[in-house]
Design brief:
seven-stranded parallel sheet; 46% helix; alpha/beta; Rossmann fold; globular; 256 residues
């Protein structure tokens, strides 16, 4: 019974930003649980590398070059996924960017770009998969937020605001589509060791030690730390979990 709860055999997942970092880790986790996976990302070369890696492990994978801020591009990706796998059961809205600057100096273009990718794109992607999920009798939408959704970030106000918006969007999705048996939940990663945070460590040399000193686990997160919670939220084990925000940060956000 336990294994069946987390079994994704026969399911199809789309992971935006799925060719590296936590996106690839979650895509791999879902694939290992039995799902076929579409990696949707703008970088074709990285997606090809990720696809080959998953295929070598025996998984079914489709890579689509996708601009998640463009409704036509997203629609084409969703159509390609349905054509290949004949269904769509899971959407992980993971694609995201960060453009940091002091709030008083932040350019409007940098504010808008982050909002477009981090908050508007999940809306576009959710709308695109909704008809297929509804027709199939249900689905799972997982939005990747951040612990910064609940913390102040003077040097990354655009990023924190976009992730705060994703929490409310998740709750709105959960309310709007529950009658269609579509559960929508959010994951709030803490400080995970990825290319994105590596650039942050380069900008702020003391960041590494600051994070280590605050995390009770005394380490940065690893992308694979997100795989288990993604499987849970994508599987039958979470069928009565809706509108939740699950924090994966090693205890960072509970420290004063």
């Amino acid at each position: 019974m336990t294994n069946q709860l987390f079994d994704l055999s026969g399911r199809v997942a789309i992971v935006t930003g799925g060719n590296g970092g936590i996106g690839l880790a979650m895509a791999r986790g879902l694939a290992e649980a039995g799902a076929a996976v579409t990696i949707a990302d703008r970088n074709a070369d990285n997606s090809a590398i990720a696809k080959a890696s998953l295929e070598r492990a025996g998984h079914q994978v489709l890579a689509c070059v996708t601009d998640v801020t463009d409704p036509d591009s997203v629609a084409a990706m969703v159509a390609a996924t349905h054509d290949r796998f004949e269904r769509i059961d899971i959407l992980i809205n993971n694609a995201g960017i960060s453009v940091s600057a002091p709030l008083a100096e932040m350019a409007l273009a940098d504010w808008q770009r982050v909002i477009d990718v981090n908050m508007t794109a999940p809306f576009i992607c959710a709308q695109a998969v909704y008809p297929t999920m509804k027709a199939a009798g249900g689905g799972k939408i997982i939005n990747i937020a951040s612990v910064l959704a609940q913390l102040g970030a003077g040097g990354a106000a655009n990023y924190a605001s976009s992730k705060g918006g994703i929490l409310q969007f998740t709750r709105s999705l959960a309310t709007a589509w529950a009658a269609d048996n579509i559960q929508s939940n959010a994951i709030l990663p803490g400080w995970i060791d990825t290319d994105l945070t590596s650039r942050a460590k380069e900008r702020v040399p003391e960041l590494h030690d600051r994070i280590i000193s605050r995390v009770p686990a005394a380490r940065w997160g690893r992308p694979d730390d997100l795989a288990g919670v993604a499987i849970f939220l994508a599987s039958a084990a979470s069928d009565f979990v809706n509108g939740a925000a699950l924090t994966v940060d090693g205890g960072f956000s509970i420290q004063g």
